[in-house]
Amino acid sequence: MKRGQTLIPLEGVIGSRLGPALPESVAQPSSMIVTVEGIARQTLEQARTRLVVVGALFGLALLVVSGRLIDLAVLGGTGASNQNHMLPPADRVVRADILDRNGHVLATSIATASLFADPAKIIDAPDAARQLATLFPDITYGEFLQKLQGKSRFTWLRRHLTPRQQYDVNQLGIPGVGFQPDERRLYPEGSEVAQVIGYADIDSHGIAGIEQSFDGYLAKGTDPLRLSIDIRLQHILHREVAAQVDEFHAMGGGGLIMDTHTGEILAMVSLPDFDPEQPGAEPKPAQGEPDPHFNRMTLGVYEMGSIFKVFNTALALDSGKVRLSDYFDAWHPIKIGRFTIHDFKGDELPGYSSVAKIFEISSNIGSAQMVKQVGPEAQERFMDELGLTKKMSLEVPEVGTPRIPHPWRPINMLTIAFGHGISVTPVQLVSAICSIANGGILRPATLIERPDGEVPQGVRVISNETSDTMRRLMRLVVTGGTAKQFGNVPGYLVGGKTGTAEKIMLGAYAKKHANLSSFVGVFPMNDPRYAVFATIDEPHGNKKSAGFETGGWVAAPAVARVISSMGPLLGIPPVDADSPVIQAKMEIDVNPVGRHIAPN
Q1: Positions marked active-site
Q2: Where is mean pLDDT largest: 18-27, 87-96, 419-428, 449-458?
Q3: Are the beta carbons of 498 and 519 closer than 8 angstroms?
Q4: Which of 482, 495, 515, 593 has its CA 20 to 30 A from that of 457?
């Protein structure tokens, strides 16, 4: 003990450090020791608890930091803390499918991932741009760099990555780059149905065709949309029209197959066409070249030539002012003002000819003489009833407006009698042809499948008797008229009408290799069920066609091949054209005893 220090009793120390001193009367050395040990143990437990809590807090902090580092380095910063505004909801709606009438998928959507960046989190923009450009050669280094150095907090880098591309980007580990769930529209049938389906943009918004018309419905992701199209018939029609376009070095072509009773369009082709998954991939067509996005069948309006003689003859007969046994002058060309109406290559029929003969040989002169009996007012009214004078209603936005004369003068009446001076869409034409052949009822054309057995009410345009006569006349065209070379299909009793029209260019009719050559066939003519139409734009005659470019030589072969393929496919039983029952139903006298009507 050092000098000057005061000796303090032990109990004083205990009293000052561990609490008040125990009274002398109760203080026991053994109990004091026990108390000291208990207090020390309690203090040690408190320290251990605090250490565990502090350790847990450090561990939790380390876990959070590690998770964030992984989020930034691997996932590109898509964590919920600052990216919820960029992510689509978990229950996002996927665009509904489009199906053909048999349930075959024509358009569908698949899940993809799209690449984006938050430029504020990009550490080294030039290096990141360089790495990304090596993975995506279709995007330049400069484009990536511009986006990565932008001022916004969000920018798309690349939409709709493949799984391999997504993996490769992940391997780069670029902070500030991430993925968002996305969807991509696919068209399994490619260009073959492009003109019907249309396409959707990169954000799955409908831009053309069915995709545009039903955008709201499809975007809800409800039941698939089922079309009237039969993809099997679409394949057949596309193949045969394309073959004729190639064979005759034509500018393009198109075709339709329609149910004569329901108005359902079973196939629709327009050539050239395009890839709906890459609608902008084709170079812009040069002046004078056809646009592959242009739907010839619904948007194009054309003078259809002699096919209009079907309507002209039906009008004349149904009016009661012309009889099947009547004869008209089909020899002398008709002069009106500075115009002259003559027949193809000057091969006018000799003298007076019957209605049946005029229709069989497709005489312009005879058709013009017939329509004089009914007049322009009746003709205009009939064309209106057939739906040929105004824009039709159809489930695609690409629908053309007919060009008709104003006013409808006598000169217009004469030229419209053989299909010039009025321009309509092919789908309007075929719809009207169906009404002439099906018993006289015009029903609206549609691209949407009708319920089984449903037949729209429609509007009567000619009598059933006139329709029966027209079926006989249309059959005559195939057996002995302008389509006799290629239009007939054994076993399917085809009838129809050819049409060859000079195209109008720069306000005038073109003279050489600028025809629109068409044929519409209906079968079986004893009980019409289907109409098949084909048109070839600017065909060039060859040895196979004996140099001709007309509908009977150019378009009729395509229709015949389509019918011969679709008949067995649809299970249509063949018809014996030589049976007495069928012959009685189809026979018609081309040289009947009747009256001769002088020109007026």
Answers
A1: 306
A2: 419-428
A3: yes
A4: 495
Domain ranges of the chain: 98-226, 234-273+295-590
Contact yes or no for 421/412 (Cβ under 8 A): yes
Of residues 311 and 337, more confidently modeled:
311
- Mean pLDDT for 333-346 is 81
Looking from the CA of 474 toward its CB, the CA atoms found within 13 Å total 35
**What pLDDT is recorded for position 380?**
98
Output the six-digit token pair for 330: 């089909």
12 pLDDT tier (thresholds 50, 70, 90): very low
Q: For residues 93 and 186, is the Cβ–Cβ distance under 8 A?
A: no
CA angle 584, 353, 416 (to 5 degrees): 100
What fold does the segment set 234-273+295-590 form as a domain?
A: Beta-lactamase (3.40.710)
Which residues are within 8 A (CB) of 154 and not within 5 positions of it... i.e. 6 or more apart? 86, 116, 117, 118
Long-range contacts of 274-277 (CB under 8 A, 24+ apart): 274/191, 274/194, 275/190, 275/191, 275/194, 276/107, 276/187, 276/190, 276/191, 276/193, 276/194, 276/197, 276/198, 276/199, 277/185, 277/186, 277/187, 277/190, 277/199
Is the fold of 98-226 the same as that of 234-273+295-590? no
315, 469 Cβ separation under 8 angstroms: no
What CA–CA distance (Å, rounded) separates 276 from 210? 12
Phi and psi at residue 227, to the nearest 5° = -90, 170
Closest CA to 565 of 491, 472, 481, 479: 491
pTM (two decimals)? 0.82
